[in-house]
Protein 1
Amino acid sequence: MTHPALEPIQSVGRAVLALVRAVGQGGYLAAGAVRALRNTDIWAPHILTQMYQIGVASLPIALFVAMFTGIVLALQASYTLTGGVPAYFVGTLVGKTMILELGPVLTGLALAGRVGGSIAAELGTMRVTEQIDALETLAYDPLAYLVVPRVAAGLLMFPVVVALAIAFGVVAGWVTSMGLLDMGSAQFVKGLKIFFDPFDVTFAMIKSVSFGLIVTGVGSFFGFHTVGGAEGVGRATTRAVVVSTMLILVLDAFWAAVLL
Amino acid sequence: MSIELLDVHKAFGDKEILKGFSLTVEDGETLSVIGYSGSGKSVMLKHIIGLMQADRGSVHVDGKDVGALGGSGLTELRRNVGYVFQFAALFDSMTIGENVAMGLHRIPDMDEEEIEARVRECLSLVDLHDVCDRYPAEMSGGMKKRAGLARAIATGPKYLLYDEPTTGLDPVTVKVIDRLNIRLKEELGVTGIVITHDMDSAYRISDRIAMLYEGKMRVVGTVEEIRNSEDPLVRAFVEGRPELMEGVS
Amino acid sequence: MTPRRELLVGSVILASGVVGVVGTLWLQGRGIGRTETEVHVLVSDVGQLAQGNAVKFRGVSIGRVGPIEVEPAGDAVRIHLHLVGEFLPAPDAGVVLAPESLFGDWQAEIVIRSRFPNFAFYEVPPNRRIQGGVHVLGGFTLPDLSRLTAVADEVAQNLAVLTDRFDKAFSDETAASLAQAIDNMEELTATLKTVVEEESSQISGTAERIRIATEEIASTLTAARSSIDRLDAMLASGRVDSILDNTVAITANFRGVSGDVTLAVDRLESTLTSADSTMARLSRIAARVEAGEGSIGRLLVDTTLALRAGDLLEQMSSLLDDIRANPRKYVRLSIF
Ligand SMILES: Nc1ncnc2c1ncn2[C@@H]1O[C@H](COP(=O)(O)OP(=O)(O)OP(=O)(O)O)[C@@H](O)[C@H]1O
Ligand SMILES: [Mg+2]
């Protein structure tokens, strides 16, 4: 059809069109979900289940990640900060990094896989087996029934999980400093406190709320637009995880640029 | 009121499925739709309940243009229409009882006891007993299909759209379902569209039969008219004799 | 199933809420249910002190700096100190605001004012010493090293101008004007000497002392300059002695010294080396002056000024030696 030399240009055009279409569909889904908020009777009963699934059930992986992050931070801090830099800086480094960056981001990434992937797979399966169509025929707005509770639970529970993960990670770093680094507890705490700014916590919470939105929203988006059977479900899941991972990192940079 | 399809066109990409046909289903009537696999019967049915929108033409149910209905209008329409999915489409995270109760929860003023009673009643209508607490994954294909039918009839809709309700069922159960269809029509005045590949069943339950072929209605007629059709294509399909089709366009 | 989930979801949310609130309060250095005493400090300038900095008493951290606000009249700054537990300040208590570490953190230390006679604590009017049950203390802010540098820069500038004036003033060797110049120089060195003497005899010299010294030098030099201005008016312009060129170099060196003061203690060594070479130059000039070389030298041979200058330089180099030996005595900064 087209000259082979024009193929690269054509593929650029195709990619841009696909992106525009995806953004459009995403916006449409978001607008629909906002409109679906009216149907309280449909989504409210499912909030609890989703809060459990997204929040409570994600705690083990989030805490696991946070624990090892805290340990590694403490060890690497003591390795890096030698000669002249006081030992209590290990506490500063563990605290600041956990609160500002690694707590929210690593939890976000872990939950992108666990929560975003499972939402995409679940909604994708429901889409290809016509369960979403069935919901519609039973006079349920699928956005209200499926998307709203998940996104709302994500917004509510991500900060909760992140807060616990941060605390757990800091404690792990603390214990490591005392146990493995031959450092006094008081020293670690001094370092922790000396540069603490309450805004750091606000910053972490703002970030985790936005990550909650991204992970659940992207998962719902790809699940909702799944086509093509089991393979399609797999594709949707992979895309949901990849895209929300990327968006988390982009958003992380965005918040750092805007708020810090 | 009735169901009216006017010059409906539908294409997926550049693959044209529905090529413009009209069809009217009168109130209280049961119309069977037959046609080759992949001819677009399910697609047609989905237009009636607004799961798909026609590219051209319109679909009217109860005098309302389905394609033009907004969210709440569509919800209103769907309260009056039951849809039996070809592959049941049961919610696999719920028990059969919860599946059947789904539509009932959308009816105001219905308490839990009434819902439970109604669920049992509908399940026994399709000859399912003691399956309320089972999950779809624990049931056979035919059982799922019947549970899907029970879910569709639970809210007592005025219109019922059946996508192959009896395919894959044993002969006895087919008769049970057919009898249920007839009862719904005669006792409750339900208007039905039934997609089926089973001609005996079609003859038993239908007032009229339509055949979808290459995106258009090849024929629409009473049971007698279909039985005595001279059209070789219709006869080939009805009698299951592909050799009759040779040389026909 | 549902009640169990409600319980779990609820307890996780509560746990994170508790962790968040208690953790934040703890890291901020506040406590729940602990008594807290509030003390206010009035001071003319807070330096780099910020909310959250430590409050010390006899070296022990006893609380945190709270809000800092300018008084309505705009003549002072009010600092809220949140102290843990009961705290009753002594009648003679004052607060010194000073750097806690080189990382820019400051602290507020509650002290007995009589121990720091040189510090100009803010004088809180007697009727405002207790306001609404809160004790109001007068504060004093240690000058930042950067301010010291500014003063030193000014001194250096004055020296440069002075050099310029010397250039014009001493070209014509008119006896009357020379006598006046000598008087001025005598005055200047005398002041310098007393200042340096006082400083080297201080046991706990501080950055503040250095500031006072440099300020005095600055004002003396300004006075000297005005005298020479008058002299200048009487004299015609003329040629420059090589010694004056040297003075320009000294000025430049002095600038270098003052700039270096802001650097960390580990660079004090090079600062001192630089100061050393300044001193060496000064001594060399002094020697030449004593030998009666150059126009200034010729002018000064019959005065005691040169001797005094030598004396002064000796004292200054011993002061530098002392700074080298005990930097902490002069640079009141605990790095860590
Ligand atoms: N969502 C869709 N996207 C793309 N193509 C579709 C879609 N739905 C149906 N089709 C295509 O439309 C055609 C008709 O499908 P349909 O399901 O209506 O067939 P059918 O007549 O119901 O067949 P069967 O008797 O086997 O159920 C098929 O070729 C199918 O591939
Ligand atoms: Mg079909």
Note: Residues B 41-42, 86, 163 surround magnesium ion (ligand 2) (CB under 6 Å).
Protein 2
Amino acid sequence: MDERPVSPALKLLAFLMFAFLLAPLIVVVPISFSGDSYMMFPPSSWSVKWYPAIFLDGKMTAAFWTSLLLACAVTVLCLVIALPAAFALVRLRPRGAEALSSLFTAPLLLPTIVLGLAILIVFARYGLLATFPGLVAAHLVVTLPYALRVLATALSTLPIAVEEAASTLGASPFTVFRRITLPMMKSGLIGTTALCFLVSFDEVVLSLFMTGPRIQTLPVAMYHHVEQQADPLVAALSVLLVVLTLLVVLVVDRTSGLAKTFVK
Amino acid sequence: MTDTSTAPGQGFLSIRGLTKRYAGFTAVDNLDLEVPKGELVAFLGPSGCGKTTSLRMIAGLVPATSGRIVVGGQDLTEVATHRRDMGLVFQSYALFPHMSVAKNVAFGLEMRKVPKDEIAKRVKEAIALVHLTGKEEHRPAQLSGGQQQRVALARALVIRPSILLFDEPLSNLDAKLRDEMRNEIRDIQRRLGITAIFVTHDQSEALTMCDKVVVMNQGRLEQLGTPVDLYERPKTAFVASFVGRTNRLKAVATDGFADFGGQRFAAPGDLSGPVEVMVRPHRIALAPTGGEGVAGTIMRATFAGDILQYDIDVAGQTVSVELATRGGETVLAPGTTVALSWRPQDVFVYGAAA
Ligand SMILES: Nc1ncnc2c1ncn2[C@@H]1O[C@H](COP(=O)(O)OP(=O)(O)OP(=O)(O)O)[C@@H](O)[C@H]1O
Ligand SMILES: [Mg+2]
């Protein structure tokens, strides 16, 4: 991005917004180092015992692996489905392409709770509740619209002449896609991957409907944990998750530039 | 060199009745063209006349509504772009942004499954040909416009295509670089004996570079000929005014003769009614009044170093006259009356556009 002079008012606004976004951390980080056995702010004593406690909690570690596997599966499936779909919508421009892409992004407009209820009713009939495939399908409902949006934007901003040049040089349509289109969409693809992964990993509402004693995702496990006992373990876990999210964002930024990926 | 038309089938590239219609709009209308092997042909015309569309149909990037494209006796009309073996240099260069210069140039050879060591050799040659040795590992974004243009040229040349197509490849360059690239393209094209089409809306580019010029207007071919043909024997008023500069004067024709300022010109065919008389400014001679010719009054004189330019009023119409300066001439003052004359072969008469 080009450097522009930033007015003091804009700087203040940015500062306030960051402060607003980071405010929860100001509470959560100290609590995660609490020596108390229940959440209290500020803590009356300090310790790091809650961090190792996370890894000793069988429920939490199992839920973490479920969430990680789930996020990976959702991300891969999302790319596999959304990439051809975006290509078809943007490049082949079938009749009603506009209507179709509105339809595909419509789930973003519905409150997740409504989606969750609908999915609950439908999935119950097919025995998909509290199963891994059921969770994957439910998460796809919310991640696919994002993926389609980002990839369609990435595709439609590519200069078509570059692909045409490749075909005049003797590249078949498939080779053009593989050697030219895909590499040029790199930042869009990395963005989609990060977005799908984070949305799925963080998802609470749908997962609440879809999980049970048999299978639990990490956010749901944390939710139930807080319901039952208010110890600072969840705060420590939250800090770890924030670090993980930051890592993902950092990787995206290093590989393709965050601004380039999400701001078109 | 008067007859430049070639019978169908005689050209290496043969375009027959090529037409492109969009909903309710004809972008290219029944284009016929024969290009002999090794010739450089310009497509010249104003913006929107269908040059790019014609080129894209030849390359297979746009399907033709009707007509045929034949190269070396083989009908390519239905053949997919990547099997046509044509090089296309885009106006926007269209380089692969994620590949180095060397990889860009090598791409077409890789697609042709040329052995690795030969690819390396030919890429090196092609890059040297366009004077980019040393820039092999640069990305396109690290090159100037002129250098990118030369990469695009090398990328299209290296595959030794049967036909090379250029879509206004020089329009983004500054004047000096444009002249250099013109000469380079012409040299390379001659040396390798490549059959090529060069799209441009710059008439001097078309005249100076190309063996033949196709003048297009509103999707139709106006005239095909050598640069000399077009300049000296323009078939239509459009060609006369688009190629080189000219005076367009209104006159009335009767009995096969047009009357302008008291002089009569043979009108081709049996034109009658309003006509346009065209004379190029530097083909008009001036003499003091009383001499042979059309009488006029000088309205404005402009001394521009190489030429002396007069705007002369002749019976209510302004005629522009240009005289090459030799030194020592007196600049005639506005108000002076003069006689204008020209050789019969320098005057063209066309039916006036309705
Ligand atoms: N996809 C399309 N749909 C409808 N009309 C089109 C389409 N593509 C081109 N045209 C029209 O066809 C005509 C010819 O376009 P073309 O690009 O061939 O012009 P050109 O001679 O290359 O002009 P320029 O010198 O400006 O590049 C234009 O009037 C253009 O508006
Ligand atoms: Mg064009």
Note: Residues B 51-52 surround magnesium ion (ligand 2) (CB under 6 Å).
Protein 3
Amino acid sequence: MIHASNLTKRYADRTAIDGLNFEVKKGEIVGFLGPNGAGKSTTMKILTGYMPATEGTVTVAGYDVFESPLEVKRSVGYLPETPPVYKEMTVRDYLDFAARLHGVEKQGLRAAIDRAIEQTHLGEVQGRLIGNLSKGYRQRVGLAQALVHNPPVLILDEPTVGLDPKQIIEIRNLIRGLASERTVILSTHILPEVQATCSRVIVINQGRIVAQDSLDRLTARLQQGKTFNLMVRNRSSQALEVLRSIPGIKSVAEAPQASELVTIEVRPEATDIRDQIIETAVKQQMGVLEFFAEKLSLEDVFLQLTTTEETV
Amino acid sequence: MKNIWTIARRDFMAYFTSPLAYILISLLLLITGYMFSQIVFGFIQHMMTYQQFNMGKPVSITEGVIQPLFGSINTILLFIFPMITMRLIAEERKNETLPLILTSPITLMQFILGKFLSSVLLISVMLALTLVYPIVLQVYGNPEWGPIVGGYLGTLLMVSCYLAIGLFFSAMTENQLIAGALTFGASLLFWIINWAAQSVDSTTGAFLNYMSLISHYQTFGTGLIVSSDVFFFLSFIAVGIYLTHQVLDSYRWR
Ligand SMILES: Nc1ncnc2c1ncn2[C@@H]1O[C@H](COP(=O)(O)OP(=O)(O)O)[C@@H](O)[C@H]1O
Ligand SMILES: [Mg+2]
């Protein structure tokens, strides 16, 4: 349904995204997960035809965004980071405008607006001015706008940001409910958000894709346990044997590529045993030069993500 | 065309959700009403002096009332229109509603034309309300309708050129006041650009005269519609709309 290849966007002074390749199949809900400034919004702006890419191509529903922007725009419903609402309009008039803009025919207008209002539970406020609504309602109006022409593809940029927990749950249920018939991409920097809604995750950091997989497999990869590198002057087999006896250690091996390097794997369930490793190494007079953890790039990213659902 | 109308319709209705449109319409009617009464009063006095004492020259209603009336309508619109155009695109940028427009299946040109059309519609409503003055003249006298129709057409065309200038500056910045100030400055310049025509060489002078909006308006006021003047106004509008398009398009590439 969506196919991006080598997608690159350079702003005047920085590269926001750098050679992204990904695919989203029909009916999937895919989460763009990444910390602030990762390039999520930039990617979405390109997918929706709001902004051209510096390099690379995107096709949505079979159309090239650059060559047939109008066809792509007809197939996509887009909720930008800030809901694009006119404060001086009523909810209903605004949805009427959005539907007309997206080419909904006159005879279908009423039904389309009613459906979008029902899906987003805006019934009670449909006659109110958008400027007088709370942030949560405005976000829902933005979502209704993205839905009103019944597009096969939905692109939602941080759809739950700034909402209270009850509203967040509502919006997530709504998104999940839409998914069976639609392809959805949503971006977020909140880890539990993807857990709650997405079937697949594309993790992006500093403009590059770090991983794309199901969330279960990604977390499994993270929990495989840690690897530490120990650089020593003297790696006697006796000392290594003592290291192996520390509870929680899975393996200790002499790295073949360097005569000073010992790699130590720690069991995932172990508590932090770095102190014990170093103490042992010192006692065994191994002559410690360096001790450092081998980091997965994915872990780097996850450390920057919001992992708890605080009330925003 | 449907897309242009969708944009224009929303925008036109937006004028009336704030007090601004009502204030501007009231201002226009109050000031032109005052001027109209003064013009008519002066005209009657002049004619009475002529008839009673045979002093001065006879003046037609066209010269004595209608042309000065359009002169005052034009002048007041020059002051009012920047407040109409300054919000056109600047407000969409400020409120971050452009993403909705630019990700809808309409072209940038349709959006710009819709914006332009909505401002032309508002000016047309304003002009339509000033029809009370010619109607008053018709009730109490016998005005020539040629110069009236010409005056309206010329005014609408000339003010549409201003609107195109305003549209352009509204696309340049998201600050409405800056857009309004630049618009007022630029349109004033196009209004008086021929003042310097005498003091420069004849080629430049002819050019300045040609660029002056008001010099193309003059013949409309006598009831004549000269195609070269209509052509000038339409070209001016087209250039304004084209430049607006270029400005907005360039934002997408940053
Ligand atoms: N209009 C812009 N001009 C220059 N740099 C920008 C612009 N928009 C975004 N950026 C930069 O591009 C990077 C990616 O931004 P963005 O796509 O908004 O990230 P995210 O949505 O993941 O937080 C950031 O470093 C941001 O500062
Ligand atoms: Mg963002």
Note: The interface with chain B takes residues 11-12, 45, 48-52, 70-71, 73-74, 76, 78, 80, 82, 84-89, 97-98, 100-103, 145 of chain A (CB under 8 Å).
